[in-house]
Structure formats: C-alpha cells, structure tokens
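Ticket reopened. Same input as before:
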Amino acid sequence: MTVEDLRELAEGQRTREQQFRHRVFYCAAAGCVSCGSSGVREALLKAIAERKMDKEIAVIGTGCMGLCGEGPLVRVAGDDTLYQHVDAAVAEKIVDRHLLNGEKVTENLVDTSAPFFTAQVKIVLENCGRIDSESIEEYIAVGGYEALAKAVTEMQPNEVIEEIRKSGLRGRGGAGYPTGLKWGIVRKAASEQKYVVCNADEGDPGAFMDRSVLEGDPHRILEGMAIAGYAVGASQGFIYVRAEYPLAIDRLRLAIKLAERMGLLGNRIFDSHFSFRVDLRIGAGAFVCGEETALIRSIEGKRGRPRPRPPYPSEKGLWGAPTLINNVESFANIPPIITRGSGWFAGVGTPKSAGTKVFALAGQIRNTGLIEVPMGIPLRTIIFDIGGGTPEGTEFKAAQTGGPSGGCIPADHLDLPVDYESLATVGSFMGSGGLIVMDSTSKMVDVARYFMQFCMDESCGKCIPCRVGTVHIHGLLEKISGGKGTADDLALLEELCQMVKDTSLCGLGQGAPNPVLSTLRFFRHEYTDLLRTPEGYVPSGDGRSQTTNA
Amino acid sequence: MAVATNGSGHMHSPTGLRPNGLSLIYAFTMPPTSQQKPHPSGDNRFKLLDRAITKQQARGDALIEVLHAAQGIFGYLETGLLIYVARALKLPLSRVYGVVTFYHFFTLKPKGEHTFVLCTGTACYVKGAAGIQKTVENHCGVKFGETTTDNRISLVSARCVGSCGLAPVAVLDNAVAGKLNPASAVTKIEEWHEQTAEVPA
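Engineering reply: fixed in the latest deploy. New output:
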C-alpha cells in the first residue's frame, strides 16, 4: 500500500458512506451490550428490512458513545441525534418516525446541548461511537493511518520524537512521565532488537477508559504503536490486554488482521524500509502486571513480579532489549499530534499538562460514563456540570481518583484543577482515569479498608513491606472499623502506612497506603469516632471528642 | 527463613505435587505428534491443545497463551495437563505450576455448571456490592471463591468487569447483568434452578 492507495481508499469509503440516506449507529461497547444493544441491532435491521429500506439505511455497531448509564444508545448520523434507553419498540419508532419522516422521537432523545456533551473536548475519543470499530475502511475514511503515512514517508525518526516532545504529551498511565523523553531514551539505546509495548492491563477497579478505546477505535492504537516503532527503531510490538476484556481482545485481533492484510502492518510499510508487527498478549488476572517490569515478566511467560529499577525498561526490557512501554491512551494521542502538529496539542490543557484526559465517571453520580476533558478543568465542573452531581437526596462527600493507589478528594477541594501536579498536592494521583464519586452513605474507613484488601490480595509477595505491611494495615483497619481500635492502633496505622509507602519495591506497594493516608487527612474524625479508649469509653458522637491517650 | 523466601508458593497451599510417579503420567502425556491420527492419549481435546502449542512454536515464553488455550479447552488445569504443557514447552513443571498459581484467571479445580461472577470493583462497591455478596452467599450456602456441593453454582468475585456505568454488576454465565440489588441477584440464580429443573422433565 502506498500513500496514494490510502487516500484513494479513504475517498472510496467516503463516497460509499454518502450513498446511504441514513447511517444509524448503535453502541456495541461492553456497557450497552450488557443492557441489550444486540437486540436493538436486530430490531433496527428487521424494521428496516420490513420497510424495504435496507439499501438506503446502514446499521453500524460502534464503540462507546459515552453515556453508559443510559444505554442502550443509538445515534443517527447526519443530524447527529442521540437516543437513550432504546429497546426493540423504540428502535421501530426511530425507523418509522425519524428515518422515514424526519421527525425525532422526542421521548428518548438525549439533550446533546447539555454540559455532559458541551464541556468535553474529544481527541482520544473522537472516533469512539462514530465509526464501525470492526472496519478498517471506516477508520481510514476519517483520516486513519494518515499520521503513520506522514511519519514514515515525510519525517525522520528524530523529527517524530521531537514533535512528540514539543507537544508536551505525558504518560497517561498515571505517573505522567514525558512521552517524548521516554521515546528519545529508547531511540538512543544501542541495540539491534527493540520492542514497543502497549500497556492495556487496565486493572484499577472503576476504570474502563482503555477498554473503551480498545473496543471503539482499535486501529488508532495500532497506528500509534507503529509510529512509536518507527521513531524508536523497533520492528515488533506487543499489546498486553487483560483477560477480563474479551470484546477488546476480539476487536484487536481483527484489527491486527485487517491492518496486516492491507499492508499497514508488516513488511515495508508504505514502501519504506520500515517493518512493524504487532502481537497480542493476554493477561491472566494479576493487578501487579500493570507495573511495567511485572508486565515484561508476564509477556515473557513468567510470574508477573516486578524488579527494582534502574535499569529501566527503556534500557533493558523484554528479553533484555530496550523496550518502550506506553499506556493505551498515550498511544491514542500520537496520531493526532503527528497530523495536526505539536503546537495544536500543546494549546489544549495547561502548560505543564498538555492535552486531554479521559475519565470513567462512576459511583454515586447521575451521568455515569466515559468523558474526555481538557487538562486543568476544575473537578467541580467534571462532577457537577458533566456528571450532573450526585443522585437526588444525597450529598457529595468525596471523589476518588487513581484507584487503589490514589486518594479521596473532599468537597473543600472541588475547585482543584485536574492535572498531574494539582492532584498530587492533595495526596491523590491522576492514575489511569477512574473517577468514583461517593456520597454521604460511604464510610471512609470502610472505603480505605476496601482498597487495602484489594492491595493485600494483589500483592505479588516479592518484597516484605508490601506483602506483610498490607496485611497488617488491613487488620488494623478491620479492628478500627469494628469499633475495637484504640488511639495506639491509629498511631501504628499511620506509622505502618508511611513505612510501606517508603520501602516497597514497586508502585503497587508504594501507592497502597494512599487511600488510608488521604482519608486520614481529610476525614480523620471518621476514624477517631470509631476509637475506644482502654477503659471502654464510647465517644459521644460530636465528631472530634477525646481520642488520645495523652 | 528459608520458608519465608520460598519463591513460588507462599500465597497458596501446596497441592502435594511430588516427583514420584510422574514417569507413569509422562507415558500417557506424550509431546505433540501428527494432527491426523487420534491423539495417543485417546482424548482428542489434546489435538486442539497441540494445535495451540504449535501455533506458538512451542516457545516457553508463550506459556501463558498455552495455558489460556488449555483452560479454554478443558475447563480447568489438572495436574496431568500441567505436566503435558511443561513437557511440550520444555519447561520445568515448577515453572508451569508457579505461573498457574500466580494468576487469578487459572484454576486447578473444575468449575460448577453455572458461574456467578460478582464485580467487586470500586463503583460496584460504592453502589452496594457487599450487600449482594452477603445475600448470595447465604442463598447458596457457600462463600465467594467456592462451588456449591452439588457442583451447580460457582461463586466468583471479579476485580472490575469494566461496566461501571451499570454498577452493581454481575456476570452470569458470560452475560452481564447490571443495576442489581440483593433480591434481583437471587432471582437470577433461581432462574438457573428453574431451567435445570425443566430440562429432565
């Protein structure tokens, strides 16, 4: 395939798409599938066939449309109408009233002028819910693989890295390491063999951003990885996906096959000397494998246990070769940076945190779903404007970001801008993008215990602070939440947390005490209220009563 | 001290795997051979497994892929199967066993007829998954991570199935059920009982 072939293919596909009077998209992402979107597809097809319109109306399954709590969702292209809670009856109404007569089905209409839609800026998710994720032609028609073509045929590898560096893109896996810098290190490493790895082991409970991108726009990840491969000098890529995402695995498999068939992956891409292949590696349910050195072990077919760094994987990674590891969302940002330029990307978000961030909104919030916002947006806008606030009759208490390594952000800090540095100032962490809202019914000691149990179960057991420390912290939290803890236990808890944080080997252990420390910082009274003094004193309940053994 | 740093099994109970008698099992679990004839073990499911191993060129670093295939074909990983895989990939059995017990996804015991996977992710937790867990455990009489004595239902808890918009969520035999409460979860389990009751009648 040459660049001309690619453009011709895109043109051809666009013409084909225009031949349809209407194109109807139904959401085929995991959230909507689980509330019956495949039935919606059948109902749409049946209604269209009965009215003999199948030549004029196309029915297309897409990736996540965002508003997961209100599924199944259906979008009619052209006038960009979005319908919620679609079942077979509603599907028939859409065909009869909207597609045939041009009047919208008002009962199920989603108000797309609501802040949920208008406050978002879509870069990573721009194709999610708008193209058929199982068709490579549709991806090409919206400009897919143009960035790869540009990189391979018009740019030197160094120029690609320079462009990424100037864009200010930082790793979206959570830690926020500058992507361009990482690429530069792998490029400079002297080795015949290098690898590019996409970390799609999205293990944080409450996070489904990467899954939605993989399911909705798999080719974009492949394109981003291929550009990375060209830039750093690697010819082999691996995508490490967790086994819990069967749909994402299927779509990726298909995407790799289609891209290979078209010559967009494989030997001599765009008639250049650049060759790149991508293989899938399926995880087997170990949270620690999201840590990069553990992930490498797992790809090598071993127990996924981290090792000390340095050497970093960019110097010594898979089978000892320099390895570039980026998260799904980081790779998804690459193609638009190459096509639209680093200046455009750097203009989105804040000077230190450029671009956007995808969040999975869940918990006690009205609009659950997938959102993408510019960096630096206040947390309040995300929760109250986009998310619509907590359900009626409940009051916002805290937002949890960063999963089991993150922290809880209380109501007083809602005006905090969401970027890497600001979240760190309140003891939380950007993480991969799970954002869980808790209301007054959530007890913070129980929340901390919940996360600690998670880390305790997931600890790989290699280093003692994490293996033993998490068990003891969990025990202390059980004791305190059961009303049997004393002030001494609380002091010990804090000491242990600090120790585990400072001395653990990898991010899992170092981050494990964060939920405890952050709830202690902002909701300390919830702990002290549960304490008893050695004499069997029961606190009076005014919140901060006598709690120390002074 | 030696016990504390024992690399492979500190989190899991050993199953009494001993090298004694292995040679006997080896005799029945020969490495991959021709695709045409019935498999020497007499169990043609091994032919499927052989194909999966050949696809990976019998490389040791494809161990996890091969184990996925094996569990997909046989349902669970019994000891003989682990030995077979170890031989085919030319890996020590300890390595295979170590990997199997490290990852939650692999199971050494057969699963029940039906599986009820309750998501215990944060979103589901905030929305009351703990209540569902208690009610379902009481209803089935076993804890999560166990199978009922009649081998009918396995209760499994998952970290996060990624359908947080529908929390609390459970996966019943691969179908996701969202926005559950304790009563509706039990109703779903009851439906299994009714289905199986209808079949013999």
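The longest strand of chain A covers residues 356-363. The two ends of chain A are 77 Å apart (CA to CA). Please confirm and we'll close it.
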